Structure formats: structure tokens, C-alpha cells
Amino acid sequence: MVKIQPDEISSIIQEQILNYNKEIKIENIGTVFQVGDGIARIYGLNEVMAGELLEFADGTIGIALNLESKNIGAVMMGQGTNVQEGSVVRATGRIAQIPVGKKFLGRIVDALARPIDGQGEIESQETRLLESPAPGIIARKSVFESLETGLVAIDSMIPIGRGQRELIIGDRQTGKTAIAVDTILNQTGKSVYCIYVAIGQKASSIAQVVSTLKKQGAMDYTIIVAATADTPATLQYLAPYTGATLAEYFMYNGQHTLVIYDDLSKQAQAYREMSLLLRRPPGREAFPGDVFYLHSRLLERAAKLNDEMGGGSMTALPIVETQEGDVSAYIPTNVISITDGQIFLSADIFNSGIRPAINVGISVSRVGSAAQSKAMKKVAGQLKLELAQFAELEAFSQFSSDLDQTTQNQLARGQRLRELLKQPQASPLSLSEQVATIYAGTNGYIDNIPVEQVRSYLVGLRQFIAGSEYSKILEKTKILDEQTIDLLKQCLENYSKQFVEFVVS
């Protein structure tokens, strides 16, 4: 029997220690002690961070939200039916993040940016945090470029600029989504990438939006983030942040983006559901105390960056649903105070046949004419003034039977201007068409046309000016100078003569 000397044993041990390269892996592990309604209470996980992603034994992903002294409260991003008391939970060491990139354009993804359109995986080399900080004041620039919606009523009276946050608010079924979709359609060829976030909607409604965008070729520059009504509250809460994160990729690369959150009322409800299940103290209308922060940290990410940062922009159009036109409710007032103006859609106006049903009296843009092209600025002032006077006169004339001729003329023009603001769905207008429409209304070209024929006059006018010298110059320069006005007047006079002859015959 060979005897091993003690010094040999120590040299073997030393050699093994020196050659040991395997990294020691320390895992942060916890145990589920209570589970239900998509919420898990976990014992352990002492090193976990707020907002960190957790992995449950069955593969379900969760987010750590409540960090308490003896346990943590986590929300699960799935049904979590196989998660039981005693299940093991691992901390991933990663704060919630998603892949981003140009490959997402034309695709439909869920609230974690996973494709759900059946067109295969999306390749991406880059990721961004779901909750990244908003750009600071120094990194921003004041809003000055126009983001045209293609809707006469908005572009002339409630203009939206690139980097602005403009709330679309109104009762259900008043055309809020229609305005958002029209705005996306109008970005064709304008180098603006669009992200449409559908929160808590029926899958059939989202499919309808997708088919409208596909029909007009708008899906090429659009990403759809869908968190349908049957998805867990966690995903409905996260969906808007996913939309903002996908948009930030383009913004920080010096490009322009438009994000539509449809709608934030549903996100607030999903957050309330999560918070109550996590046993956070309820406040007004049972919403948690930080529901304002929920929306402010989302909407503050919209910005127009300065030239050093690349000059990109993110424009946000959040949508909020009201009950019976009550804009003084909790969530509507919160979002109104965060945004730079609101477009208020009225059920009464909608039911009276005016579409889009914009209440010009309550609607406002706090960026104003800074976000308008020079051509639109020149014609819009007159339109606003005449419509305001018409609203006053119309209210006054209800109590008076005999009106003088001037008042009658003003009322007649006001009725025609109101017709001018009506627009069918999914048919946004170019700048030259809008300017010609407003100019015709405010300069008497439609004064002698019967009210019921104003719409057909305007449709014909737009076809008449298509491809004209006036349209080419205005689309190129965006300025309404003397030469362009002369060309426009010539078009209007020639067309009006044709229209009158056609009507008479």
C-alpha cells in the first residue's frame, strides 16, 4: 500500500484551487406562500429590486411591485395557473425591458413586445427599459413643427405640433379612435413612425383598425401594441409603456414618432385592480394615490429633442373616455392637467350629424399657432373668428324673430362654414386641400351655394385642384404668398363657374 505524504496532499489541493475557473453563481430565490387573482406573495428574495422581473417555476414571468419588510408582492404576466403555494421563484436581476428596433414596423405585438400576428419572431439586437426617465428640460426644444392630422377642424383651430401631448376626450362611440386612425393615415410619406396602443379593447375593434391601416398602406410605418380586454390587468397596465419605449428608439435616433394610447381610462382601471389586489390603500374612487404618477411619467416621455440630441420627437395622443360628458371626473382631470391641450368630442354634436364631433368651444391647444405652417396660420385666424361669432349669433337668434340682413348673412355663412368642417372617416386632407377649403369658405366662394350642396362643392374642388400649380407650390413651400393666393383664386373662380353651370343644368 502506497502512502501519500501530507505535503503531496496539500500540493494537489493547491493545484486544484489554482486551476478552478468555474464562476460561482449566486441565485436570489424565494418561495410563494400566497397566490390568487394574478398576485403572488413571496417569502425570501431579499435582494430584489422594485420593478425587477421574476421567474416562477412554471415559466410564468412576474414583476416585483410591493417590497415589504417580511415579503414581497408580485404581479404575474399571465394566468399563472400552475403557480402554487411553495413554488420556487427566481429573481432575474433585470428590470423590465423589451426589444426595440425598425423590424417592429408593420407588426402587431403584445404588451411585452412579443409578436402576436403569426408572422414569426422579430429579430432585434437592442433593448430598452420599459420605464426609462423622460428627457430633461435642457435636452428639449420648444414645439415648432406641425404634425398634420388631415382634419380641417383640428389643423386649423386646435393644431398639434411634433413633440406635443394632445388629449382626445369624449364619451364612448363619439369618434375618438377615428381621429387617431385618421392622423396615422395622414402621416404617409411624412417620415413619422406611428405606434397605436390598444388597451382593454375587443380584439374585433383592433382588427378593424388594422384592416383600415392595411387598406391604405399605413401599416408599413406603424406598430400595433395590443392588450385586449381578456388579457391580465398587468399587461393592460404595461402596454402604454411598451408603446412609449418602442417610440423612444426612433426618437433618440433623430426620427419623428406619433404614439396613440387608446385609452388611458382602461389603463387606470387595470392599475386600480392590481393595486387593490396588492392591498395598497385605496384613495378617491378606489384608485391608488399614485394614479396621477402612472400617467404623468408616461406622458412626460413625449418631447421634441434639441439638435444636440438629434432633433427627434415623440408626439402623444392619449385618449380618455368620459361618462356622460363629465370632464371633471378624476382620471379626465388628471390627464387634462398633464397634457398640452385637449380635443373634446361631444355626443350631442355627434348625434346632430357633425363628424368629427369636435366641440371647438372647450377644445384647446396650448401650443397654438406655433405648431402651424405659415399657410394654415394665414387662413385659420379668419375661420376661428367667424365660427366664434356664428356660435354667439346662433344662440342669440333663437330668441329673436326679425333679424337684419347683415346678421342673416353671418348666420348663413356660419352654417356653410360648419359644413366645411365635416369630414368622412379615413379620408384625411393634404395641406393644399385644407387651405383651399378654408379660403373658399371665409372669402365668400360658397356663400351662394345651398347648404346641402356645400359638401359636394368641396369634394369637387379638391379633385379640381389636385395636381394644379397651386397645390404643387403650396405643398413644397407651405407658405401662402401673393403668387399662391392668385393661383388659388384662379382655381376657385374657374371651379365655381363650372359648379354653378353644372347645378343649373
From TrEMBL:
Keywords: ATP synthesis, ATP-binding, CF(1), Chloroplast, Hydrogen ion transport, Ion transport, Membrane, Nucleotide-binding, Plastid, Thylakoid, Translocase, Transport. InterPro entries: ATP_synth_asu-like_sf, ATP_synth_asu_C, ATP_synth_asu_C_sf, ATP_synth_F1_a_nt-bd_dom, ATP_synth_F1_asu, ATPase_a/bsu_AS, ATPase_F1/V1/A1_a/bsu_N, ATPase_F1/V1/A1_a/bsu_N_sf. Pfam families: ATP-synt_ab, ATP-synt_ab_C, ATP-synt_ab_N. It is an enzyme of class 7 (translocase). Residues 27-93 form the ATPase F1/V1/A1 complex alpha/beta subunit N-terminal domain. The gene is atpA. The record marks 363 as: Required for activity. Produces ATP from ADP in the presence of a proton gradient across the membrane. The alpha chain is a regulatory subunit. It comes from Tydemania expeditionis (Green alga). The lineage of its organism: Eukaryota, Viridiplantae, Chlorophyta, core chlorophytes, Ulvophyceae. ATP binds at residues 170-177. Its EC number is 7.1.2.2. Gene3D superfamilies: 2.40.30.20, ATP synthase alpha/beta chain, C-terminal domain, P-loop containing nucleotide triphosphate hydrolases. It is found in: Membrane; Plastid, Chloroplast thylakoid membrane. It comes from the Eukaryota. This is ATP synthase subunit alpha, chloroplastic. Residues 150-365 form the ATPase F1/V1/A1 complex alpha/beta subunit nucleotide-binding domain. Residues 372-494 form the ATP synthase alpha subunit C-terminal domain. One of its GO terms (cellular component) is proton-transporting ATP synthase complex. GO terms for molecular function: ADP binding; ATP binding; proton-transporting ATP synthase activity, rotational mechanism.
